[in-house]
UniProtKB/TrEMBL annotation:
Protein name: Tripartite tricarboxylate transporter permease
Keywords of this entry: Membrane, Transmembrane, Transmembrane helix
Transmembrane segments: 20-49, 61-82, 109-132, 138-159, 166-184, 204-224, 321-340, 360-381, 393-411, 440-459, 465-490
Keyword flag DNA repair: no
Domain DUF112: 20-442
Cross-referenced InterPro entries: DUF112_TM (IPR002823)
């Protein structure tokens, strides 16, 4: 009951006119970025991070709440209309969603996507309201050794799951860790990877890294691709933008199954919602094969409903893991963690005590953002599709200018512009050689936490490394890490054996 009363106070703050404006603006901007190929919610938060410094923390995070889910809505809109997912989390949706659009059922596919995202996000956010304080109490049991184990779990899980190649995943993680340790060591005063350049003594800003890897790297990737004809909006945009009772009954179990798959993945550091969305798609496809008249391959509504609910459920519980434990389980959550740190706040168990007013307003704004996005998504879908009619040279030139202005506005340092250019080249090369981006962001954010926790644990034990595995929590975390690695290895071996047959 205490959670409900606190949530009620959060709604009272979130329903002020200015805060409602920030929610709507964040939803619009998040969706607008999400509909652009290769971009998404992580990109939207990264680009808007410098812009929100002039806002008070409550207003900034309320805007981020709209951006957080808006990017996922935009991803799926483009996946359905033109078979061009705005982000990797919408790839599973594109399989059946675009087939529905090709058969003249684009509005129904968009409605399925919108309602599924709403249901998945609503279930996950409701669970966060009731269980985030419990997670915060559990987090108090974590000491330096436990946080080090948690960081190692996040490193290896994200590196091994998000890429087809474990080596590429580990390579991306190493790049993130190297970027994280640039600067002067706070304990020993040693310079690390600075090349005696004074501008690097304070390290590399998280804004420079996120904008360079995610935004500028994508711009370079588009520029150096072969020229392609710009995609056109789907012609199947006529018809009823709602579901019949029969369609709703068919989609409803898939929404619930997708949400059930996505909820636990929000607190597991596997790099984002790609894994649960494909699991939800695979589950629906397996169930479809048992039917007398299989619909997959011809525009199955359940092939859209499951992945959409799974993706937004994962995003919702990822916010709970971030707020309660300070654990970013995706690239977007990692950037949100950086946003908290920019405002002098550290997500974790103390956040609910020191900044309770902000936390509960933020949670209330997540509910409001879901409703706002449901209202906005269908009427504006044709408008988002027309964005792709803009010539790419103009579209990505504008993104480049926005990147430069955002980075320069945070520090007024030309050195940061050179850094973001160099990191953008790294991001471009990673895309060209199929290196995943999520482990980079996980490494950048959790690298300092892992290093500090390791040092504190060893200092408290007089240098005895046994302290790192001395508690039941560390046993559980390392056991889960071993299980994840074994499952990944088994699937890789099985997949390779199937290809060799």
């Amino acid at each position: 009951m205490e959670s409900l009363s606190l949530l009620g106070e959060g709604f009272a703050g979130a329903f002020s006119p200015i805060n409602l404006l920030w929610v709507v603006l964040g939803a619009l901007l998040g969706t607008a970025v999400g509909v652009l190929p290769g971009l998404g919610s992580a990109m939207a938060v990264a680009l808007l991070l410098p812009v929100t410094f002039s806002l008070d923390p409550t207003g900034a995070f309320i805007m981020f709440a709209g951006v957080y889910f808006g990017g996922l809505f935009g991803d799926s809109t483009m996946a359905i209309l033109v078979n061009t997912p705005g982000g990797s989390t919408a790839i599973a949706t594109s399989f059946e969603g675009h087939r529905m659009a090709q058969s003249g059922r684009a509005p129904q596919a968009l409605a399925t996507s919108a309602i599924g995202a709403f249901i998945g996000g609503l279930i996950a956010t409701t669970l966060v309201v009731f269980f985030a304080p419990v997670l915060a109490e559990v987090a108090i049991l974590f000491g330096p050794a436990e946080y080090f184990a948690l960081a190692i779990f996040a490193f290896l899980a994200s590196a091994s799951v998000v890429s087809d190649s474990v080596l590429r995943g580990l390579g991306s993680l190493i790049i993130g860790l190297i970027l994280a340790v640039v600067g002067i060591d706070g304990i020993s005063g040693t310079q690390r990877f600075t090349s005696q350049v004074p501008q690097l003594f304070d390290g590399i800003s998280i804004i420079v890294i996120t904008v360079g890897v995610l935004a500028l790297g994508e711009v370079f990737n588009v520029v150096f691709k072969r020229r392609e004809a710009p995609p056109t909006a789907s012609k199947a945009m006529t018809g009823r933008p709602f579901l019949t009772r029969r369609e709703f009954r068919e989609a409803f179990p898939a929404w619930l199954r997708g949400a059930g798959i996505g909820v636990p993945f929000g607190v597991i550091p596997v790099g984002g919602a790609e894994v649960p969305t494909f699991m939800a798609y695979g589950t629906e496809r397996q169930l479809d094969r048992r039917r007398r008249q299989p619909a997959f391959g011809r525009g199955a509504i359940r092939g859209v409903a499951g992945p959409e609910a799974a993706g937004n459920a994962t995003a919702g519980t990822a916010m709970g893991a971030l707020l309660a434990m300070g654990l970013p389980t995706s690239a977007t959550a990692a950037i949100m963690l950086a946003a908290f740190q920019q405002y002098g706040m550290q997500p974790g168990p103390l956040l609910f005590e020191r900044n309770a007013d902000l936390v509960w307003v933020l949670l209330a704004s997540l509910f409001i953002g879901l409703v706002v996005l449901l209202i906005l998504n269908l009427p504006l879908a044709p408008l988002w599709a027309k964005l792709l009619l803009i010539p790419r040279r103009f579209l990505y030139a504008g993104i480049t200018v926005f990147c430069a202005l955002g980075v320069y506005a945070t520090s007024a340092a030309l050195s940061d512009l050179l850094l973001v250019l160099g990191i953008g080249v790294v991001g471009f090369l990673m895309r060209r050689f199929d290196f995943p981006l999520a482990p980079v962001m996980i490494g950048v954010i959790l690298g300092p936490l892992a290093e500090t926790s390791l040092r504190n644990a060893l200092l408290s034990s007089g240098g005895d490394a046994g302290v790192l595995v001395a508690s039941p929590i560390t046993w559980v975390l390392y056991g889960l890490m071993g299980a994840v690695l074994l499952i990944v290895a088994y699937r890789r071996v099985r997949s390779r054996a199937a290809r060799d047959v």
